From TrEMBL:
Name the UniProt record assigns to this protein: FBX47 protein
Domain F-box, first and last residues per copy: 38-88
Length: 450
């Protein structure tokens, strides 16, 4: 066909033109498989892509990382950059007085989200490579290190590190968690530092004891963990050491501390009766190791650990031993007492039972609990003579202890700090209530048989 201007051209059929247009558009969208995985982000330069990330929350970036392997790779490259660390590694750990405040909860939530982001980004990497990458990202945060912060008691760094690791390792199998522990153990040089504190005189390395306590409690034994996870990490901490060192380390991590400087108070169990607050951490740890979650611990292991703990750093007051057993629960308490009965340690067993009655009186527990425990222990003895000998030791212990306390009252100056009279008062009431419950039990048994 010729135009009026004399030039000629060929008309393209409409159907063919439409098909060729679709093929042309498709070729623009799929230049390469790698770029197509970026979706609309493929048109953005890398610098602009990273600028876009600054407008997304950590949770949104975490969701974005699951879109494709290509985006995940870009995020892996972005996170360790100076721009990425400024954006993601918040370090205002010291502006908060208490973790319970809104700001404290906010920064903990931030590192929880960051843990999920790195978990998703490194999903396809082997465990060893994931740990190396995470270390490369977090290496510049000094407050995440065992001795990296000058004010550890006013710092949320280790707690943030703990929630980060908790999210990162959630769902990992036991072998992978072993690798995590070994990695952290070597990275922090914990073996050498723990060896230093458990082999030296208690309190001679107070700052190191405090650092180890905070690191283990905040990072490895995060209170947000499930019992099975806590049992796993506590086992990893204790098992490499002999029993005597396990007891020392358990006291460092869970024992009482000073309210002034946070340092471990080694003389607390020796100088006088203590309260439930000072013993609760130790009791909870013992219950954890004795429970079904701690598969690597036998009942004998836990009994030996409790026995060893009662002489750290020196022999405890018997009242503190009794209070720890009560707080540890019925099962561990009975197992511990039964082991004394089986091994013929009747005098020691009698003293423990008397002080358990005293603790029940002081701390307002039901005295029938102590009497029922006595009844169960009596069934452990193999002969009537052994049982009767134990009961005789029990009554003699009550009598001797009453005389000792009475002498202390008569010899005391009775100033405001003198506790001899209140102790005598509690012991007299404990003995009366203890025997009253025994009489009630005897009368009930007589009534049921007649």
């Amino acid at each position: 066909m010729t135009s009026s201007a004399g030039s000629s051209y060929t008309l393209i059929p409409r159907q063919k033109y439409r098909r060729s247009s679709r093929r042309s558009c498709a070729s623009l969208d799929t230049d390469s498989p790698a770029l197509s995985a970026l979706g609309h982000f493929q048109t953005l330069p890398l610098e602009i892509f990273q600028m876009v990330l600054n407008y997304l929350s950590v949770k949104d970036i975490s969701t974005l990382s699951m879109v494709s392997k290509t985006i995940s790779s870009r995020l892996i490259n972005y996170i360790p950059t100076s721009s990425g660390t400024r954006r993601l590694l918040l370090q205002d750990f010291h502006t908060l007085e208490l973790p319970g405040r809104k700001e404290g909860a906010s920064i903990l939530e931030h590192y929880k989200s960051l843990g999920l982001l790195l978990k998703r980004c490194t999903l396809l990497l082997p465990t060893r490579d994931r740990l190396k990458y995470v270390h490369r990202v977090l290496a510049e945060v000094s407050c995440f290190k065992l001795s990296g912060c000058a004010r550890p008691l006013q710092c949320l760094g280790l707690q943030c590190y703990g929630v980060f690791l908790q999210v990162l390792t959630a769902g990992w199998d036991e072998l992978e968690c072993h690798r995590v522990f070994n990695f952290l153990w070597e990275l922090s040089n914990l073996a050498r530092k723990v060896q230093a504190v458990v082999s030296s005189k208690p309190g001679s390395a107070r700052r190191l004891e405090l650092r180890i306590r905070l690191f283990c409690r905040s990072v490895l034994l995060n209170p947000r963990l499930q019992r099975s996870d806590s049992a796993f990490w506590l086992t990893r901490i204790l098992k490499p050491w002999p029993m005597v060192n396990q007891a020392r380390l358990l006291y460092i991590i869970f024992g009482p501390v000073s309210s002034l400087d946070g340092h471990v108070v080694w003389q607390k169990m020796i100088e006088g009766p203590t309260d439930e607050t000072s013993l609760k951490g130790l009791a909870d740890a013992i219950k954890l190791l004795y429970g079904t979650e701690a598969r690597e611990w036998t009942a004998d292991d836990v009994i030996s650990l409790v026995d060893e703990l009662s002489v750290v750093p020196q022999e405890w007051l018997m009242e503190n031993n009794a209070r720890l057993l009560l707080l540890s629960g019925n099962s561990i308490c009975f197992t511990f007492l039964a082991s004394k009965a089986v091994n013929g340690r009747a005098v020691e067993l009698a003293r423990l039972m008397v002080f358990m009655a005293l603790v029940c009186e002081k701390d307002l527990y039901c005295m029938d609990w102590a009497v029922k425990m006595l009844q169960k222990v009596c069934k452990v003895f193999s002969t009537p003579w052994e049982r009767n000998n134990f009961l005789l030791c029990l009554e003699n212990t009550f009598a001797h202890l009453l005389m000792d306390m009475l002498q202390a009252v008569l010899a005391g100056e009775h100033d405001e700090e003198d506790s001899s009279f209140p102790n005598l008062f509690h012991l007299v009431n404990a003995q009366a209530n203890f025997h009253k419950e025994i009489l009630y039990m005897a009368m009930r048994n007589n009534s049921s048989t007649t």
